TrEMBL record:
This is Uncharacterized protein. It holds the Pfam family AIM24. It comes from the Bacteria. The lineage of its organism: Bacteria, Pseudomonadati, Myxococcota, Myxococcia, Myxococcales. Residues 1-31, 62-90 are annotated as: Disordered. SUPFAM superfamilies: TRAP-like. It comes from Pyxidicoccus fallax.
Length: 323
């Protein structure tokens, strides 16, 4: 369903292209190959008895069919070479003399007007009051002054903005180490405008208002936050796995989280520590002490999986995987 740019090739009998398939091409289809309803720019080449549905915008049926009839409602449907004799030895296959010869334009078919198309597919726009606007398949980030964000997945920005790489902070001072690496590096956006971001595959996003509280998040889970939010970078050292990079956020302001799934929490009590597999850990809130521990070892003592044990009073923040 909804196969954008799908190109099934060499389809057998009864091959069917997906509904709503923009730019769908079914080639060398066998008898009974079907183009889906609403298939914009669909092309079916070769094969007798090929059927084009109603509303097949711009559909082109080539290479001769016995019936040679275009369906009702087929706006821009072209039946090329219908009824022409097949070349010797090529049963039911005809080379079309002209691509759009004999085009039939159906009347009364509803088609989106160009003047309505762009507004109808506009991305959700954030503003100063709502700096993080989450939409289907993406989101936008409003900048009014300064805001820290990653540019990973950015497809456009509006307004006048400049970007400067952000450095990690420790004990209130900037260090010489970058906050993030590569495309996921944190930058300080300055000016006034809006960033439009495509959500990475298998990631979900959640906007949170700190409300004067403090919280620890894994470095890769923090996508953006407002400039009034104070941050420090830290890590949990480990001898059995790479050190766990953290970001400590506190103060007033909103934060945009990038998560590998739905956010959930597990209460932590002083008498009952909580252990979370490293792959599921998002962070924690409260007076908790973290420790990297082995979760699974081989018979020879090799650590196969690691986890973080949280002791104290507070909440462990975890993510349920995207399914």
């Amino acid at each position: 369903m909804g196969g954008f740019g799908t190109r099934p090739s060499a389809g057998g009998a009864g091959a069917t292209a997906p509904s709503g398939g923009l730019g769908v091409t079914a080639q060398q289809g066998g008898p009974g190959a079907a183009v889906p309803t609403g298939g914009l720019g669909a092309t079916v080449a070769g094969g007798s008895g090929v059927a084009v549905p109603a509303d097949g915008l711009g559909a082109t049926v080539q290479a001769g069919r016995p019936s040679g009839a275009a369906p009702a409602g087929g706006l821009g449907t072209t039946d090329v070479g219908a009824g022409l004799p097949a070349p010797e030895g090529a049963h039911g296959v005809t080379t079309p003399p002209a691509l759009f010869e004999g085009a039939a334009w159906a009347r009364g078919t509803s088609v989106t007007a160009l003047s309505d198309l762009a507004p109808s597919v506009a991305l959700a726009g954030a503003d100063a009051e709502h700096p993080f606007a989450l939409g289907r398949g993406g989101f936008s980030v409003a900048v009014d002054g300064e805001l820290l964000t990653r540019l990973e997945g950015m497809v456009a920005f509006s307004g006048s903005l400049t970007f400067q790489p952000e450095m990690k902070r420790f004990r209130g001072r900037a260090t010489d180490k970058s906050f993030g690496e590569g495309a996921a590096r944190m930058v300080r956006a300055k000016g006034r405008g809006t960033l439009y971001i495509e959500a990475p595959e298998k990631r979900s996003f959640l906007a949170v208002d700190l409300g004067e509280d403090s919280v620890y998040f894994r470095d890769e889970c923090v996508f953006a936050f407002e400039e009034p939010v104070m941050f420090e970078n830290g890590r949990v050292p480990s001898d059995i796995a790479p050190d766990l990079d953290l970001v400590h956020l506190r103060g007033q302001g909103r934060v945009l989280l990038s998560l590998p799934g739905t956010l959930r929490s597990v209460p932590v009590r002083a008498e009952q520590p909580v252990t979370v597999p490293l792959t599921a850990l998002v962070g924690w809130q409260g007076n908790l002490t973290p420790r990297v521990v082995p979760l699974l070892k081989s018979p020879t003592g090799e650590v196969l999986r690691t986890a973080v044990e949280l002791g104290g009073e507070g909440f462990a923040l975890i993510a349920l995987g995207v399914r």
